[in-house]
Design brief:
The complex is a heterodimer of chains A (94) and B (220). By secondary structure, chain A is α/β, with parallel strands linked by helices. Chain A has helices spanning 18-28, 48-63, 75-83, 86-89; strands at 4-7, 11-13, 35-39, 43-46, 67-71, 91-93. Chain B has a single domain (9-214), classed as Orthogonal Bundle (yeast vps74-n-term truncation variant fold). Helices cover 58% and strands 7% of the residues of chain B. The longest helix of chain B has 22 residues, at 197-218. Classes of the chains: A alpha/beta (94), B mainly alpha (220).
């Protein structure tokens, strides 16, 4: 059963704040929570370090039988997710 | 950062690039190992939080040294560069010294007892040096990790995804697999490797260099 929590990174997700966001995402996946709905509608930029954070969260969620859902990315972010093939292994809902 | 006993990506790549029996380097596409070695340094700097990248550029997050000379030297070079260059430009620049980096990594593995340094003679005259594994445990562990990852549908760890990219770009990956496995696992290899921007830049750079080399051969 999916027990989910929501979060919404804003602005940039890159090497400057990746560790903070990783801590936040993993911090939400506690107890019975196994699914993370990440609202990307206000995210303007994601770097390689930022993508790795999404992957770390997705791996943790999958390990608990859940998943990460990436919601409403802006076109530029969606393009990055497609180029890197994230849309093939994560649930991306544009 | 890696722990003192954990192998770096460059070390893992070199171990797999050495023939188990002879201790010689496998015959690989021109420049591919040099560019992959350069990529492995950029990867370690990214994982150490010193640099970051996107499709257009590679940039500094923290200029603070890592304490490892092999990483701090390229970091200094990146910090000193006034422009933000794409990852591919850094791969070409850091690969330019040729086999020096690889030899440095091999020397480190010999110092740590992972490899042995053995002098051999070619045609009874020319001296050459080969590097057979001391026990082979480390290389077996790396290969086993990669094969396990390829044969399941798990989300990879970052380091493993980066290693798959190094092995793909050098062509080593396909030498580890039978022809049947190559066909079966091709999409999975690409899926894992392409997760990382630096892997995509690495494969593109190796391909471009091969095209340039071929073109230069036909139009000297």
């Amino acid at each position: 059963m999916a027990i989910s929590k929501d979060c919404k990174p804003v602005g940039r997700l890159d090497g400057a704040n990746a560790a903070t966001y990783e801590k936040e995402f993993l911090g939400l996946l506690v107890d019975d929570v196994n699914t993370l709905n990440i609202d990307l509608s206000e995210l303007d930029y994601v770097s390689s370090a930022g993508l790795r954070v999404l992957l770390v969260a997705a791996k943790a969620a999958k390990g608990k039988g859940g998943k990460v859902v990436l919601l409403s990315p802006k076109p530029a972010i969606l393009e990055v997710l497609k180029i890197s093939g994230f849309d093939k292994i994560l649930d991306v809902r544009a | 950062m890696t722990s003192p006993n954990k192998l770096t990506l460059a070390e893992e790549l070199v171990l797999i690039a050495l023939d188990d029996e002879s201790g010689s380097l496998l015959s690989l596409p021109p420049f591919s190992l040099e560019v992959a070695m350069a990529a492995s340094l950029l990867m370690e700097l990214e994982l150490a939080g010193r640099i970051d990248s996107d499709q257009q550029k590679l940039f500094v997050i923290s200029p603070n040294p890592t304490g490892k000379a092999i990483l701090d030297e390229p970091l200094e070079e990146i910090v000193a560069e006034s422009r933000q260059l794409p990852t591919s430009a850094w791969l070409r620049r850091l690969a330019a010294p040729g086999p020096v980096l690889r030899e440095r990594v091999i020397a480190g593995l010999v110092d740590r007892g992972v490899l042995r340094s053995v002098e051999k003679r070619l045609l009874w005259v020319f001296k050459t040096r080969v590097y057979p594994p001391t026990s082979g445990i480390e290389e077996s562990e790396v290969k086993s990790r990669v094969m396990t990852l390829l044969n399941n549908d798990e989300i990879p760890d970052t380091r493993d995804a980066l290693l798959v990219g190094l092995l793909r770009a050098t062509g080593i990956m396909y030498r580890l697999l039978s022809s049947t496995e190559r066909e079966r696992l091709r999409d999975r290899i690409d899926q894992i490797a392409n997760l990382e921007e630096i892997n995509r830049a690495l494969s593109a750079t190796v391909s471009e260099l091969l095209i340039e080399l071929t073109s230069a051969s036909f139009h000297p």
